[in-house]
């Protein structure tokens, strides 16, 4: 099953809730691809021997990997870190996350500054492009185990919004505006 994504409502309720609009407004994969968000469905039970994961890592230059458990019992300073993850930000590099267990939400801004909620579950590998405004939170299960992939040494520097003058943001906007009206490449 493909990843699920939808436009979010404007409610300030618990961020771990789905926040569907009424009626629901689902977002197809090709719309995410137009924003530069890439997605693969892999086998999380055999990630150590997964040929497709190895091919993705080699093709994209992801030579560093670590695992992160996000839940109250396993993450030091859990509440503070979850609050930081949910603060709208960008990165200078891609954010690559492969969900091995559990589930959570990545929220990304579209070209009209609307929030799109992407629900990742075990088997979902997602790549957010450098410069895209986004945030992360758990869902009501309060647990996710993620593989984080990086090119070179791991760097996780968040630049909180506003960042319109950040080079990664400028490049992202430039790439986004150049793609308008162009056919999508297969992902």
UniProtKB/TrEMBL annotation:
<dbReference type="GO" id="GO:0005506">
    <property type="term" value="F:iron ion binding"/>
</dbReference>
<keyword id="KW-0028">Amino-acid biosynthesis</keyword>
<keyword id="KW-0408">Iron</keyword>
<feature type="binding site">
    <location>
        <position position="91"/>
    </location>
    <ligand>
        <name>Fe(2+)</name>
    </ligand>
</feature>
<dbReference type="Pfam" id="PF03079">
    <property type="entry name" value="ARD"/>
</dbReference>
<keyword id="KW-0560">Oxidoreductase</keyword>
<dbReference type="GO" id="GO:0019509">
    <property type="term" value="P:L-methionine salvage from methylthioadenosine"/>
</dbReference>
<comment type="function">
    <text>Catalyzes 2 different reactions between oxygen and the acireductone 1,2-dihydroxy-3-keto-5-methylthiopentene (DHK-MTPene) depending upon the metal bound in the active site. Fe-containing acireductone dioxygenase (Fe-ARD) produces formate and 2-keto-4-methylthiobutyrate (KMTB), the alpha-ketoacid precursor of methionine in the methionine recycle pathway. Ni-containing acireductone dioxygenase (Ni-ARD) produces methylthiopropionate, carbon monoxide and formate, and does not lie on the methionine recycle pathway.</text>
</comment>
<dbReference type="InterPro" id="IPR004313">
    <property type="entry name" value="ARD"/>
</dbReference>
<keyword id="KW-0539">Nucleus</keyword>
<feature type="binding site">
    <location>
        <position position="89"/>
    </location>
    <ligand>
        <name>Ni(2+)</name>
    </ligand>
</feature>
<feature type="binding site">
    <location>
        <position position="89"/>
    </location>
    <ligand>
        <name>Fe(2+)</name>
    </ligand>
</feature>
<feature type="binding site">
    <location>
        <position position="134"/>
    </location>
    <ligand>
        <name>Ni(2+)</name>
    </ligand>
</feature>
<dbReference type="InterPro" id="IPR027496">
    <property type="entry name" value="ARD_euk"/>
</dbReference>
<dbReference type="InterPro" id="IPR014710">
    <property type="entry name" value="RmlC-like_jellyroll"/>
</dbReference>
<keyword id="KW-0486">Methionine biosynthesis</keyword>
<feature type="binding site">
    <location>
        <position position="95"/>
    </location>
    <ligand>
        <name>Fe(2+)</name>
    </ligand>
</feature>
<dbReference type="GO" id="GO:0010308">
    <property type="term" value="F:acireductone dioxygenase (Ni2+-requiring) activity"/>
</dbReference>
<protein>
    <recommendedName>
        <fullName>Acireductone dioxygenase</fullName>
        <ecNumber>1.13.11.54</ecNumber>
        <ecNumber>1.13.11.53</ecNumber>
    </recommendedName>
</protein>
<keyword id="KW-0533">Nickel</keyword>
<keyword id="KW-0963">Cytoplasm</keyword>
<dbReference type="GO" id="GO:0005634">
    <property type="term" value="C:nucleus"/>
</dbReference>
<keyword id="KW-0479">Metal-binding</keyword>
<feature type="binding site">
    <location>
        <position position="134"/>
    </location>
    <ligand>
        <name>Fe(2+)</name>
    </ligand>
</feature>
<dbReference type="GO" id="GO:0010309">
    <property type="term" value="F:acireductone dioxygenase [iron(II)-requiring] activity"/>
</dbReference>
<comment type="pathway">
    <text>Amino-acid biosynthesis; L-methionine biosynthesis via salvage pathway; L-methionine from S-methyl-5-thio-alpha-D-ribose 1-phosphate: step 5/6.</text>
</comment>
<keyword id="KW-0223">Dioxygenase</keyword>
<comment type="similarity">
    <text>Belongs to the acireductone dioxygenase (ARD) family.</text>
</comment>
<dbReference type="InterPro" id="IPR011051">
    <property type="entry name" value="RmlC_Cupin_sf"/>
</dbReference>
<feature type="binding site">
    <location>
        <position position="91"/>
    </location>
    <ligand>
        <name>Ni(2+)</name>
    </ligand>
</feature>
<dbReference type="GO" id="GO:0005737">
    <property type="term" value="C:cytoplasm"/>
</dbReference>
<dbReference type="GO" id="GO:0005886">
    <property type="term" value="C:plasma membrane"/>
</dbReference>
<feature type="binding site">
    <location>
        <position position="95"/>
    </location>
    <ligand>
        <name>Ni(2+)</name>
    </ligand>
</feature>
<dbReference type="GO" id="GO:0016151">
    <property type="term" value="F:nickel cation binding"/>
</dbReference>
């Amino acid at each position: 099953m493909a990843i699920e994504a939808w436009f979010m409502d404007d409610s300030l309720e618990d961020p771990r809730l789905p926040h569907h609009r009424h009626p629901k407004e689902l977002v197809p994969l090709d719309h995410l691809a137009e924003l530069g968000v890439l997605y693969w469905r892999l086998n999380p039970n055999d990630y150590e021997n997964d040929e497709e994961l190895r091919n993705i890592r080699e093709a994209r230059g992801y030579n560093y990997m670590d695992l992160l458990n996000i839940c109250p019992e396993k993450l030091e300073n859990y509440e503070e870190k979850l609050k930081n993850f949910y603060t709208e930000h960008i990165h200078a590099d891609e954010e690559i996350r492969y969900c091995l267990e559990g589930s959570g939400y990545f929220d990304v801004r579209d070209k009209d500054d609307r929030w799109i909620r992407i629900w990742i579950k075990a088997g979902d590998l997602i790549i957010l492009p450098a410069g895209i405004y986004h945030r992360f939170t758990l869902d009501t299960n309060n647990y996710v185990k993620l593989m984080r992939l990086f090119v070179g040494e791991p760097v996780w520097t968040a630049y909180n919004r506003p960042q319109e003058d950040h080079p990664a943001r400028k490049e992202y906007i430039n790439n986004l505006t150049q793609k308008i009206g162009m056919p999508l490449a297969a992902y």
